[in-house]
Structure formats: structure tokens, C-alpha cells
Write a structure and sequence with these properties.
single chain; 333 residues; alpha+beta; Rossmann fold; Tumour Suppressor Smad4; 11-stranded mixed sheet; 6-stranded antiparallel sheet; 10 helices; 17 strands
Length: 333
């Protein structure tokens, strides 16, 4: 008998905000803010809009807190997942609703909330006709993350300039060499204080588990309110061993778990970590936890929604990715 898909995240109708404050990054997504007239639409619906001018010159979280101090009763962000997480943290701190506007390049958080990534202007409709859901927010070393924190080979991939434009292709291109020749400090991962993984080459800790085993770490999440982290760990040494993951969930070299706490340690005093696609250096040990139900998200009533989950292991995806890994790892490639 096929298991029923989990029920949808509970939502409730809510009145429009009175003093919404929305932060927008006009450079995100190749200029989606300007292309879709997001400033004009949000302003027409009563929002005060703050634009992030100049790369790396504005403290996004501080700007959000200024909005709260000025009386905002909703915080919103139009930009990539990194910007979304920073504003979401402030919204969670003050128990304010958070508006996600999918103006970034990928916006996986928006996708898993059931929003249309190609129509960020529709997200703004939530200011006039919206519903609210409560979801979880990940925390890594005190920093928020909406999607995931990555370590080892995954973190090295995030540092590639090409990663921002095409995450999946860049991951599949770089992963074979990184798995077989990763020279970073060895890692030790402790899950919920008891399960220990020694020497993994790649670790992905997600805000709620992904639906299926995905070597590229870009799967979907059917729910964002399970109160659990997802963990994907790869301990193989080369692309050929990666192909062995086709054997299934418990294949040697691949671990997929759900948990409440992940601690990544190393002999190195600090290690590279990808936090929602942004490369940072964090002091070890690095602790990942979850703030269950901490974030109130305001969604437009009309939206695509979240598809029915795939089976726990997507063998077709495994086969495709393993074939690509082997092809890319051939001599002369």
C-alpha cells in the first residue's frame, strides 16, 4: 500500500498588515526587483520599502530591526535565500509575520513554501490577501538558515563563482574531484549526541529533511514544520564509489538521517561552511539546531503550492547523477 503524503502545513486567514516594512535587493536575480515593479507594487499596498544599495554595504539584520523599531507589523524581503534568512531571523525574534518575495536567482525557500519563483510580484499579493503558516528556522553557530548549512566538499562548491548561477551543474561538475581529492581538515559529525560519522567528505544539514537522496543536495522539502533537521553525509573517496550509492538508502558511503542537533568538529580552529549558499568561516565545533515553529510566514492565497512528495529514495535521480559523476571523472575530462 502506498503511504499517504503528509497533510499540508496548516494555514490561517489573516488581515492585511498596517505597517509592513520590506527590504529589497535590486541586484538579486538579475534585477527582478526592477523588472517586476516590486517597489511600486509593495508601496501601493502600503509597504515602506528599503533598497539595499551597493554590494556588502548594508547590515540587513540591523535594517530589519530599524523597521521593527519604527513600528513595522510585518517584515518582508525580496532577494536571495541569504537575505531572506537574515530578515526572517529578526521577524522570528519579534514574532512578526515574514513576507517572502522570490526575487533571487534560485530561492529554494520560496519554492518549498509553494511560491512561484518566476513571479515574485505575485508574492507581494500577500500584503492584501494572505494566509499565514508557521515554519521552522535553522541555526548554525548562531546564524539563521532557511535552507541548509554545508560542510566539506559541499562548502567548497559553494565558494565557486559559478555556483550562484547554476547550483546543480556546478555541483555535479566539481563533486568528483572534491570527493577524491578533498584536502581540508578531516571532519567528525555527531548527530543528536550519539551517532558519530568520522571523516565524511561532504555534509549537508537542512532546515527540515529533503524528500529524496540527492547527491547535488538540491532536493525539495514537502514540509518546513516537522521540527527536525535533515542530514546528508557522503564518506566515499571518489566518483566510482559515489556510483555505488545506487544500491539504495543504506548504501556504503551515504547517510541520510533526521535529527534535532548536528555538531561538526575538526582539529582546525575554523572551517568553511556554506550557509544558504553564502561561504563563511566558522569556529569549530559548529553546532546546528532548529527553532521549531519560530517563523510566521505570510503567503498569497493564490500560489502554486507544494507537490506531492517523491519516494524517500529517487533511484532515477541517483542513476542520472552517478552517471554524470563517472563521466566527469574520466581521465582527460
Amino acid at each position: 500500500m502506498r503511504a499517504r503524503p503528509p497533510a499540508a502545513t496548516p494555514e490561517r486567514a489573516v488581515p492585511p498588515p498596517v505597517h509592513p516594512f520590506v527590504i529589497m535587493n535590486p541586484r538579486s536575480g538579475g534585477g527582478k526587483v526592477g523588472r517586476f515593479g516590486l517597489v511600486e507594487k509593495a508601496s501601493a499596498l502600503g509597504a515602506k520599502v528599503a533598497l539595499l544599495e551597493g554590494p556588502g554595504t548594508v547590515d540587513v539584520a540591523a535594517l530589519a530591526r530599524e523597521g521593527v523599531a519604527d513600528g513595522a507589523d510585518l517584515l518582508g524581503a525580496a532577494g536571495g535565500d541569504g537575505t531572506q534568512a537574515l530578515v526572517a531571523e529578526v521577524a522570528a525574534e519579534h514574532d512578526l509575520p515574514f513576507l517572502v518575495i522570490s526575487a533571487g536567482t534560485r530561492n529554494h525557500f520560496a519554492l518549498d513554501l509553494g511560491l512561484d519563483r518566476e513571479r515574485p510580484d505575485v508574492c507581494v499579493d500577500a500584503l492584501a490577501d494572505g494566509v499565514e503558516v508557521r515554519v521552522d528556522l535553522g541555526v548554525v553557530a548562531g546564524r539563521p538558515f532557511a535552507n541548509n548549512a554545508s560542510f566539506g566538499a559541499y562548502a567548497a562548491i559553494v565558494q565557486s563563482p559559478a555556483y550562484r548561477d547554476d547550483k546543480r551543474a556546478t555541483t555535479l561538475q566539481m563533486l568528483p574531484d572534491l570527493l577524491s581529492g578533498h584536502t581540508g581538515a578531516p571532519l567528525t559529525v555527531t548527530i543528536d549526541g550519539t551517532h558519530v560519522i568520522k571523516g565524511p567528505k561532504a555534509i549537508l544539514v537542512s532546515n527540515n529533511p529533503y524528500e529524496s537522496g540527492d547527491l547535488a543536495g538540491l532536493g525539495r522539502r514537502a514540509r518546513l514544520d516537522t521540527g527536525q533537521l535533515g542530514v546528508v553525509a557522503i564518506t566515499v573517496d571518489n566518483a566510482a564509489q559515489a556510483a555505488g550509492l545506487l544500491r539504495g538508502r543504506n548504501a556504503s558511503g551515504f547517510t541520510r538521517l533526521s535529527c534535532h542537533e548536528v555538531v561538526v568538529d575538526s582539529e582546525a580552529p575554523e572551517i568553511p561552511v556554506g550557509v544558504d549558499g553564502e561561504a563563511v568561516m566558522l569556529q569549530t565545533p559548529v553546532r546546528c539546531t532548529l527553532l521549531a515553529g519560530a517563523l510566521r510566514v505570510r503567503l498569497p492565497r493564490q500560489r502554486p503550492g507544494v507537490p506531492v512528495p517523491k519516494p524517500p529514495i529517487d533511484r532515477t535521480l541517483f542513476r542520472e547523477q552517478a552517471t554524470n559523476l563517472l563521466e566527469l571523472a574520466r581521465p582527460g575530462r
